[in-house]
Amino acid sequence: MTTIPYTPLARYAARLHAELGDRHHVASPLGAWLLLALAAPAATGAVRAELAEVLGVDGEAAAATAAALLDRPHPLVPSATALWHRPGADTGKLAGWTDGLPRATASGPLPDQAGLDAWAREHTLGLIDRFPLTVSPRVLLALAGALATRISWATPFDLVPGAMLGPGAADLPGDERRPGTVPRPDQAHGRAGPGGDAGPGHRPAGPAGSADRGAPDSGWAGRLARALRSPEHGHRVWIAATGPAGDVAVHAAGAVERDGGGLLVLSVLADPAVPPADVLAAGYALAGAAVDGEPGRRSLFDLPLGVGPLGTLREESVRTAARGGREERHRAVLPCWSAHDEHDLTAPGLGFAAVGRALGGLLGIDVGVEARQATVAHYGRYGFEAAAVTGAFALTSLPPEGVRRTAELRFGHPYAVLAVATDHRDGEPGPWHGLPVFSAWVAEPREPSDTDLVDPVESW
């Protein structure tokens, strides 16, 4: 049984997102990790140890995990990988490594730029139009990977005014500040409600936090006319206790499943004072358990009332059958969002420079490396779509200056034509192989027909 790489992937994600900083972005740490895992068995000695440190697991284990994922693709996350070589390049020294690549990894001569772009479109549901690297005469080998998804929510969001993203809005279903619904006195002053306080040493980042701090105002509420609110049923919302990020708000929306496979999209919100790296790390820590439960869940009765970094917590008297007469309800308000990025993956610590050294070691030459990832994502009322294409080129030095002759052969006078069959149906030349079926002597040319002047049909 292959171990799911939760911890190694979380470590690599921390490295990648640290390089990208706190700007708006989307990335696929998994997409980059998979390419490193495919290349890892090519490494020896110190390079092998370096890749193991980056991957968080030894190269053979990483490669086995990658093969398990790629050879059994997820029904909602189509994936593809490829290894291409420059036409005419001697790749025999790579055979010991390439023979162990996953069955799903395509191989062959390096396509031209149009071919690479078409590969990117084909394997990202059309979401990414261009391969993130540009072919040049220096490219000796190319590794590529693609991941994509396009899902519909099992239960769509409700639409609400964008002002509900702000601290003054009612957050709970039906809570439109009905006449007679007023905050408790301790709510107005931000003191702990029933159930006690957050506990000694705990970051005050629950929904209320400190009354003196108030609620954060990013300005989103004033910029957006509409926002999304989790429906009464079908989504999961909770407040989770985490490590460095403190208390975080978690929203989980699930996709319509296909063939037993699903996709859960987690949104994780912390106090704005928490560094983005800590919030992302909290998300990765919650992810594995969140598919089946609500890890780290805190009772609302253990949190202070009032307005705080995560939202608003109010209390009112109701009739309820909840245990102990304490009923908890959660709703979340989120914006729609989109992101489109390209990321350079050659920074120290991301592993791709080591891949170049590993491949160069097998070939017995020095190679440079280029590595980039193109990503896109859209999050909306009815669903989510995202894609990533990760590419790495092993580059050789440009050849020395020389002389080239180019022949353009013009069939401008009578010539012979033969139609010759090929036959490799059994893996070796068959009875039809090399047999001329038709032959002609062309002495009277003609203009292209009307059908020759239009785009080709898929096949004759």
Mean model confidence by pLDDT: 84
Please summarize the sheet with the most strands.
6 strands, mixed
Distance between the termini: 47 Å
**Secondary structure tally: strands:** 16
Describe the structure.
There is one protein chain. The chain has 460 residues and is of the alpha+beta class. 21% of the residues lie in helices and 23% in strands. The protein is built from 10 helices and 16 strands. The chain has helices at 6-20, 29-39, 45-55, 59-70, 95-98, 113-122, 185-188, 220-223, 276-290, 352-363, and strands at residues 79-85, 106-109, 139-152, 158-161, 226-229, 236-241, 247-254, 264-269, 306-308, 311-313, 333-334, 337-344, 368-379, 383-395, 415-420, 436-442. The strands form 5 sheets. The chain has a 6-stranded mixed β-sheet with strand order 2-1-3-14-13-12, covered by helices on one side. A 3-stranded antiparallel β-sheet has the order 4-5-11, with no helix packed on it. A hairpin with a 5-residue loop joins strand 6 and strand 7. It starts with 5 loop residues before the first helix and ends in an 18-residue tail after the last strand.
